[in-house]
């Protein structure tokens, strides 16, 4: 028993001394067992398909930036001050593929050990006679969240658990400080001509950070209260200059 305890302690100390990238790789090696019962295919998106997904995400971000969507529960999804287009990351797509091809529920726990700040969104769809289009699944993230969205979340992201579950895929997609995305999916056959497509995207930097803003509303459309929230947050994260 003492030897086992010492071995566990040594292992813990070794892992703690590793870099985030090495800890992520070790975590991945421990999650190789698949839960798939009838996997038809899995895809790490690249090339033209990746371009189609990325283009659609950026179109939706641009829609928000221009303030063209008005279907919001408590007002408008206001135009943003700054909401840049994303670039595709093959590394993020590879990470997403490693998880989705195992057919496991939930999100990838290993991302907590990954270098940098990465977040993940997930969508599953059951279709008859065909596989779900990933572009359609991206649009589902956006439009399914819109009807539950509340303007007050823009300047300070602090939803209750029920609202979070309904809007988090949307808010992750339109988070201003994200720069990269990579996606993958897996298709299982669950019946006669019945298919379940699970689509996952990894995003960097991570969004859906409680207490932060999703994006800054365009200057002309901000309320005084929203401006105060932005000023307060910016002051909190700004490092004051060193004393002479």
Automatic annotation (TrEMBL):
Residues 1-16 form the signal peptide. It comes from the Eukaryota. Keywords: Signal. Residues 48-211 form the SCP domain. SMART domains: SCP. This is SCP domain-containing protein. It comes from Cotesia typhae.
């Amino acid at each position: 028993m003492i030897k086992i305890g010492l071995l566990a302690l040594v292992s813990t100390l070794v892992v703690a001394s590793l870099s985030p990238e090495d800890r992520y790789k070790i975590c991945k090696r421990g999650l190789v067992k698949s839960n798939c019962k009838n996997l038809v295919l899995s895809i790490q998106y690249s090339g033209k398909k990746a371009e189609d997904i990325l283009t659609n995400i950026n179109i939706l971000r641009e829609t928000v930036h221009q303030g063209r969507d008005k279907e919001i529960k408590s007002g408008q999804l206001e135009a943003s001050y700054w909401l840049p287009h994303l670039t595709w990351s093959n590394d993020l797509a590879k990470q997403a593929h490693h998880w989705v091809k195992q057919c496991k529920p939930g999100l990838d726990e290993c991302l907590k050990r990954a270098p940098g700040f990465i977040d993940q969104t997930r969508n599953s769809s059951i279709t008859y006679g065909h596989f779900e289009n990933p572009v359609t699944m991206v649009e589902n993230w956006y439009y399914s969240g819109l009807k539950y969205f509340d303007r007050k979340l823009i300047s300070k992201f602090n939803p209750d658990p029920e609202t979070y579950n309904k809007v988090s895929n949307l808010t992750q997609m339109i988070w201003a400080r994200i720069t990269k995305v990579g996606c993958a999916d897996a298709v299982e056959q669950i019946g006669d001509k019945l298919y379940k497509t699970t689509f996952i995207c990894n995003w960097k930097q991570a969004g859906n950070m409680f207490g932060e803003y999703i994006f800054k509303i365009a200057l002309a459309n901000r309320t005084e209260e929203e401006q105060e929230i932005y000023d307060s947050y910016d002051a909190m994260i700004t490092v004051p200059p060193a004393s002479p």
